């Protein structure tokens, strides 16, 4: 569980750092919930302007490609740079990510399923 907590905190850090750095986001909220079957994260990045092509680029980088067998390697790579490649690593550690943008607020809902040890 401790290793999983580190991974979740890294996911939060990567997303917050990215939006503060790239979009100069002045206000955000993060909601975290540890449910029975998954970790649920919701981010609201407020007062940011994103052009349609940049939003599509963001969505393409956050296409979920979870690879549990390689996660111990991936999560250790986060934090090295502040570019969009970090978002690809976030997607590789997530089971689903929803992106919505309305009224200058970008909402990300991320789900990471809990792995049960046999």
Keywords:
four-stranded antiparallel beta sheet, 4 helices, alpha+beta, Heat Shock Protein 90
What's a concise summary of this model?
This protein has 118 residues and is of the alpha+beta class.
Write up this protein.
It is a single chain. With 118 residues, this protein is of the alpha+beta class. The protein has helices at residues 2-23, 52-61, 71-77, 85-92, and strands spanning 27-34, 38-46, 96-102, 105-113. It has four helices and four strands; from the N terminus they run αββαααββ. The chain has a single domain, classed as Heat Shock Protein 90 (2-Layer Sandwich), CATH 3.30.565. Helix 3 packs antiparallel against helix 4 (85-92). Strands 1-2-4-3 form a four-stranded antiparallel sheet, covered by helices on one side.
């Amino acid at each position: 569980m401790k290793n999983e907590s580190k991974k979740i905190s890294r996911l939060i850090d990567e997303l917050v750092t990215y939006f503060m750095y790239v979009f100069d986001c002045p206000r955000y909220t993060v909601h975290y919930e540890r449910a029975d079957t998954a970790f649920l994260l919701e981010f609201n990045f407020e007062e940011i302007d994103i052009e349609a092509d940049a939003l599509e680029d963001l969505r393409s980088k956050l296409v979920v490609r979870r690879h549990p067998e390689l996660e111990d390697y991936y999560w250790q790579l986060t934090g090295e740079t502040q570019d969009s490649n970090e978002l690809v690593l976030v997607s590789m550690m997530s089971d689903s990510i929803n992106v919505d943008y309305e009224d200058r607020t970008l909402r990300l809902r991320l789900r990471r399923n809990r792995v049960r040890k046999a």
